[in-house]
Amino acid sequence: MRAIRTTPNLRHGAAAALLVLGVASQHIDAQASPQTALPRWVPDPLSQLLPAPVPATVKDGFTLVTLGDLLYWRPVRAQIDSGMEQALRLVRGADFATANHEGTFFDLHAKRIAPRDGSLMAGPPEMAQDIKNLGVRLVSKANNHSFDWGADGLLEERRILDAVGLPYAGAGDNRSAARAATFVDLPKGRVGVVAAASSFQTGVVPMDEDAEVPARPGISVLRTTSARVVDEKQMAVLRRMATVERAGGAPIPGNSEHLGRARPIADSAANEVTLLGQTFRLGKAPGETWTMNPWDEFEILKEVRSAKKLSDLVIFTIHAHEGVDGPGEGDTPYPADFLPTLFHHVIDAGGDVVAGHGSHALRGIEIYKGRPIFYGLSTFIFQGFILQTQESRNSRNLDPRFTSRGETEVRLNGSAPPGVEDPTGLLGSWDVTILPVMTYNGGRVTEIRIYPIDVRRNPRLRQSGLPRLAPPELGHRILELMQTLSAPFGTKIAIEGNVGVIRPGP
Fold it and tell me: How do residues 77-99 score in pLDDT, each as one tens digit?
């Protein structure tokens, strides 16, 4: 056999080829290595926006009512008098009415479901039928009290709602179900409702089933990250504090996840400092600024866009305590800066109406591309008796002589922010709300009639916390307040007798 001789050039070429193969093999191994970061997909919420608004397709004359919070703990049917009946006649007379139910109802004695710690809102199973009697056709369950009794409590309430035929949105056995729109078929069209909460408790974020990992129930959430706006002088002090913190080698944790606030991101620019669990940002006006979680906004807008294809009118509703000064107790009359952005995106994705609640005080109304946005509808029923766990009472140093059986009476009421003139005397008040009635013709809302409501939170009255049409003097002040709050959005509200009227243009 003749031997094959390898020339120096061939040997060099073969070595080079082997070297190339080796490098390629190492590159492939490196790509497969778990230590190497995998490609990441960042969701783009703007990808869900429609190129142009799509008109509603409900039949002419369709009427819609959107209410704020139903915050009460026992059925009110037996307490309804002629004053409250006048208000309920408007709700029942609409083709569709929706509200947010804040709290949980089930048989506490039979189920013995353990509560989470803190303030608890509860009620008996009869609450479901009582809400239907008000004229409400669907409730949102995405809020910061839906998990007062954990997943088991919410599951039991959902079972009761299903049993009486009262639809709900914003909660489910998994993430997809919680996000999903709920549809209600009516003689004049099909309504889809998408519900979410930016104010919520920890541990309520749902998960879909993933291979062997089971699903987790919860509510549809919009997580946000907040940054406190400070001036130059304050920022200089904060930077020095941050330097000391870093020099110590151990960051000081802070409470950054209260009411759904996401953990702050690391310092992203020279004008930001993260310290004590809070991000501070250099700016001109003091207050708080917010950034939305892109995954949550993407999924919400995706569901709104999908609902538009499957219904004649789409309502988006959100429970949002957040304001310009933080979450607070929900009495700030001015919405957080992320809400206008979110609401505009919702309408651009196919929403026809936006209904905000969670703020126990009224907020303004905006007409965006002919669609109404209610930034805060306050509370329609407010009977402020709230259960407190033993630990919660102790942590608040509540007098045990007045907290038997864990029941405490809430006598809170908001007021005007410091330095703000309020000729109406109602800015930030928890005692008033509005009942808007929207009428649709030709695929758009042609008139919004705003009825001022007196919630009458007076502990000496049997009907305390129950709504009724406000008397003329109070009604006029409520409507003047709505004019003031809505003016920054360019919304003009005419006062005709004891009713406010908005007639959006084409």
Answer: 998 988 899 999 999 999 999 99
CA distances from 258 to 144, 212, 224, 321 (A): 10, 31, 11, 11
Q: Which two tokens stand for residue 96?
A: 């569709």
**Largest CA-CA distance found in the chain, in angstroms, rounded:** 116
Cβ neighbours, 10 Å, residue 48: 22
Best CA proximity match to 320, nearest among 102, 483, 481, 172:
102
In this predicted model, what pLDDT tens digit does every residue of 109-130 receive, in sequence order? 888 887 777 777 788 999 999 9
Q: Which residues pair with 408 in a beta bridge?
A: 386
Compute the distance between CA of residue 479 and CA of residue 468 in angstroms, rounded to an integer: 15
Nearest to 300 by CA among 158, 458, 180, 411: 180
Rounded CA-CA distance 12/336 in Å is 69
- Residue 412, pLDDT above cutoff 80: no
Give residue limits of the domains in the chain: 54-209+216-222+295-502, 224-289
For the record, the structure tokens of 262 come out as 């996401």
The arrangement of strands across the sheet holding 407-409 comes to 119-120, 385-388, 407-409
The residue whose two tokens read 């239907």 is: 132
Residue 253 has pLDDT above 80, yes or no: no
CA distance 345 to 388: 38
DSSP string, 420-463: ---TTS-TT-SSEEEEEEEEEETTEEEEEEEEEEE----TTSTT
Nearest to 236 by CA among 276, 187, 200, 271: 271
Chain mean pLDDT for the chain: 85
Q: How are the residues of the chain apportioned to helix, strand and coil, as percentages rounded to the nearest 5? A: 30, 25, 40
DSSP labels, 121-164: -EE-TTHHHHHHHHT--EEE--STTTTTTHHHHHHHHHHHHHHH
54-209+216-222+295-502 CATH fold? Purple Acid Phosphatase; chain A, domain 2 (3.60.21)
